[in-house]
Amino acid sequence: MKYYTSLRPYVSKRVEQIESADILIGIPSYNSERTIGHVIEMVSEGLHRHYKDLRSVVMLADGGSTDDTRDVIDNTSIGPWQEKLVTIYRGPAGKGTALRSIFEVATRLSVKACMVVDSDLRSITGDWVKHLLDPVIEKDYDFVAPIYCRYKYDGTITNNVVYYLTRALYGKRIRQPIGGDFAFSKRCASFYMNQDVWETDIAKFGVDIWITTSAIVNNFKICQSHLGVKIHDAKDPAVHLAPMYRQVITTLFALMEEYENFWKEIKSSEPTEVFGEDPGIEPEPVAVDLKMLVRKFKFGYKYFGVLWRKIFSEDVFRTIRRASRQRSENLYISPDDWAKILYEIAATFHKWKHNRYKLVELSTPLYYGKVASFINHSRDMNSAEAERLVERNALVFEHLKPFLLELWDKPLENNHELDPELEDL
């Protein structure tokens, strides 16, 4: 069923009654009863302290929570001169549809600025509101991406995949391309709302990288803002992050196809303006299971090695095979080798017309192996030192971009996408 609006009738009517606002704060939520109250309180406090002369709306876009999330929302008070709007959005289930509803309300209320924050934040303060909104309200930026102070093993998909590819492809050093906390202008909200993507997988997953990439490619004025330490419901990559990896990487590769004329012309990267300062705090540790990561990587080699040999070039497959024979505490995949692995997967995704999901699924154990490698490489580093390692690795992806360009238009020697082995997985 195609939904022409993501708002239910009672919400649409309430928006009509509000008529207009200066600021909209959007909070997508799903089963967030433990944290949502704190997030609302901090957002409300920040609005009252920094923007009490502006008319503000706090919008909760819920995905049909089955816990007490909506009861907590209803029972959490907000400040004077602030409106609270609560909706169970309409459309395909997923964060993308929640964001669509926020874009729609921001456009209909003609707000000056809109900010989105995740509902699982434990470290959010009222100052986050100012840090994200000020560049839009005071300096006419269209899109404000976050910079967090994070533990070195938090954000492994960003640190090992998304930051490297986004920076090398599109030429902007946006440190958190899939950060869940960001701000945008009325112009940006209208653009996002009117894109014909809301019945696609972007409405279900991968929306964060779509938002950032679209902002870059469509020449919106972009900056970043330091938010300090991010403490949230962090996930152990060995246990929880495989679905997210597959969702994000699939969207990222699909965007590469859509915007190939743009990224093929990008030769290097440039920084954006950054507001605020890194607090220089060592964040609380995030638990990771190194042995399980390595076990899943080696399990992948055992069962998918025959297919990997067909998918990858001889040199890259040799690198993977060598890594699969290393002990857990010694496993290492160099930045050069990792860049070539990801670039070869991206080029193969581009050439295949079938079995693309299978290709991404086959690459998941390689992500486990790279995270294990990063853990081993940064074992004796603090988070600031590990951050410098990430920056050095990002340069490797830029330097090896010609390798991707050469592969991108090179025909497949064998059409492996139709292999029976893939169909039977």
The share of residues in extended strands comes to: 5-15%
Q: Write down the Rg.
A: 22 Å
What coarse outline follows from CA principal-axis ratios?
globular
What is the count of β-strands? Answer: 8
The CATH first-level class of the largest domain comes to: Alpha Beta
- Percent helix: 40-55%
| Unreliable parts | none
Number of domains: 2
Enumerate the strands of the largest sheet in spatial order, edge to edge or round the barrel: 3-2-1-4-6-5-7-8
Would you give an account of this structure?
An eight-stranded mixed β-sheet has the order 3-2-1-4-6-5-7-8, sandwiched between helices. Helices cover 51% and strands 11% of the residues. The mean pLDDT is 93. The two termini are 31 Å apart. The radius of gyration is 22 Å and the shape is globular. It has 425 residues and is of the alpha/beta class. The chain contains 17 helices and eight strands. The chain has two domains: 9-275, Alpha-Beta Complex (Spore Coat Polysaccharide Biosynthesis Protein SpsA, Chain A), CATH 3.90.550; 290-423, no CATH class.
How would you sum up this structure in a few lines?
This protein is α/β, with parallel strands linked by helices and 425 residues long. Helices cover 51% and strands 11% of the residues.
Could you name the key traits of this structure?
425 residues; alpha/beta; 8 strands; 51% helix; globular
